[in-house]
Write a structure and sequence with these properties.
- It is built from four helices and nine strands.
- The protein is α+β, with helices and mostly antiparallel strands.
- The chain has one domain (2-172): Gcn5-related N-acetyltransferase (GNAT) (Aminopeptidase).
- The strands form two sheets. A five-stranded antiparallel β-sheet has the order 1-2-3-4-5, with helices on both faces. Strands 6, 7, 8 and 9 form a four-stranded antiparallel β-sheet that branches.
- A hairpin with a 3-residue loop joins strand 1 and strand 2 (7-10).
- The longest helix has 18 residues, at 39-56.
- The two termini are 21 Å apart.
- One of its GO terms (molecular function) is acyltransferase activity, transferring groups other than amino-acyl groups.
C-alpha cells in the first residue's frame, strides 16, 4: 500500500467492484476513455488488475480517501501491452469518480505512484491520453512529466475513425 497525506493506493477488494462499476457507467468519467462500461466489463477490468499485480507486483490499484475509506477511483502503474509505444514501457494511469475531480487527488496519487516506481528501479514511466483530454494532460504536467511528441501515437485498439484514437505521450524519469 502507498499512502499520501490524503489517500491510500491499495490492492483491489471485492467491495470496490460496485463503486468501480458505478464510476465506469458515468458517461462524463468515460468521456475520453470510450463508452460506459457494463458491470461485467468493470469486473473484468478489476480481474485484469489483480492478474497484473500477481505477475508484475504492480497494477492500477484502488484509490481511497484516508479520511473516510471511500473508494474514489484508481491509480498506479501497468506494463503497456501493445506495440504503439516502446517495448517494455510502463504506464502511469488514473481514473477518479466525478465527485473527486478538481481536488488534486489525481496529481497526489500519480506523484506517489511515480515515486514508488522509481524507488523500485523503473527508469522511465510514460502516461498517455487522447489529444482532447486536457484535464489528464494537466495532471501529467503537474507531476513533472515531460511531453514526448516523438512518442505520440494512434491507439491500436480504437477504430481508424474514432475521435479518441490520436494520443499524446508524457514521460517521467527519476
Amino acid at each position: 500500500m502507498i499512502e499520501t497525506a490524503r489517500l491510500r493506493i491499495r490492492p483491489w477488494r471485492d467491495s470496490d467492484r460496485a463503486p468501480f462499476a458505478e464510476m465506469g457507467r458515468d458517461a462524463e468519467v468515460m468521456r475520453y476513455l470510450g463508452p460506459p462500461l457494463s458491470r461485467e466489463d468493470s469486473d473484468a477490468a478489476i480481474d485484469r488488475m489483480n492478474v497484473a499485480q500477481a505477475a508484475h507486483g504492480f497494477c492500477f490499484w484502488a484509490l481511497e480517501q484516508k479520511a473516510d475509506g471511500a473508494f474514489i477511483g484508481f491509480c498506479g502503474l501497468l506494463p503497456v501491452r501493445f506495440d504503439a509505444v516502446p517495448a517494455g514501457s510502463i504506464e502511469a494511469g488514473w481514473r477518479l469518480r466525478r465527485a473527486s475531480w478538481g481536488q488534486g487527488y489525481a496529481t497526489e496519487a500519480a506523484r506517489a505512484s511515480l515515486g514508488w516506481g522509481f524507488a523500485l528501479g523503473i527508469e522511465s514511466i510514460i502516461a498517455f491520453t487522447t489529444v482532447a483530454n486536457l484535464p489528464s494532460q494537466r495532471v501529467m504536467q503537474r507531476t513533472g512529466m515531460v511531453r514526448r511528441a516523438d512518442l505520440d501515437f494512434h491507439h491500436p485498439r480504437l477504430a481508424a475513425d474514432d475521435p479518441l484514437r490520436p494520443h499524446v505521450v508524457y514521460e517521467a524519469t527519476p
